[in-house]
Structures are given as structure tokens and as C-alpha cells.
Task: structure prediction
Amino acid sequence: MKKLIVLFFLLFLATASIYSQNNSDCEGSKTSKNNKPIKIGIVISTNDAETAWNALRLANYSIAENDTVSIFLLGKGVELSNISNNEFDIKSELNDFIDKGGNILACGTCMRSRKMEGSKTCPISSLSDLYIMIRANEKILTF
Result:
């Protein structure tokens, strides 16, 4: 009987340890300030307001964590600066990203197909620049 209780106790401790490790990655946990900054590339290929807004929020958060962030707008993503939505303040997030030194590029072919011109928030770029961004960054995220 004692062996069974000891075995149960050890199983409980192991389970608690695993549970604790898994929950440290959950939403609400703070990242360690000891983490080495990384280079993150974000490709936005949507004109969905909520998705684009979340991508920009992540980009701004990453910059606040001392990471280097580059954004490449592709396909419908080149419409980013024209998305208007009362619930998701994309323009504010986009301006914050640029003001914080974030780098943004946009597919020239995608822009020309929409009869758009380059701007500060949407400078014309090329597929070659997307390739360079992918090669230069440690993490690439797509939205």
C-alpha cells in the first residue's frame, strides 16, 4: 500500500511539473527580458481588417521587445493603408510601426495590378526584395 501511495505521489509531481511547463507559454505570460533579440519577417497578404490589425500589433509588440521587424505586403496586403475599420485601428498601428523604425515593403506587381502608387506606408518593392527579406530574417510569419 505504501508503494502505491509513493508511486501515486511521484506521478502527481511529474504531472504538475509538466503542466507548469506547458502553461508558461500561455497567453498572459511575460517574455523574459533576457531573450536575445531576433529578426522577424512578416508577410501580410490579406485585406481582412482584423487579421491585418493583429499582424501589426504583433509587429509593434516585437519591436517593443527589441526585435527587428520587417513587413512585406503581398497580394491583397498592399491594400493595408486603405483598410478602414472602426473596430480595428490599422492606420494607428501602421503609423506606430513606421515611427518605431519598422521596415515595410510592398509588391510592385500587386500594387500596379490595383493601379496603386508607392507611398511612405506602402513603398514599391519586388519579389527579389521579398526573397532577401526571407533570407535575412530568423523567423517568417504570414498573415
The two ends are 56 Å apart (CA to CA). The chain is about 45% helix and 15% strand. The CA atoms of residues 81 and 91 lie 6 Å apart.
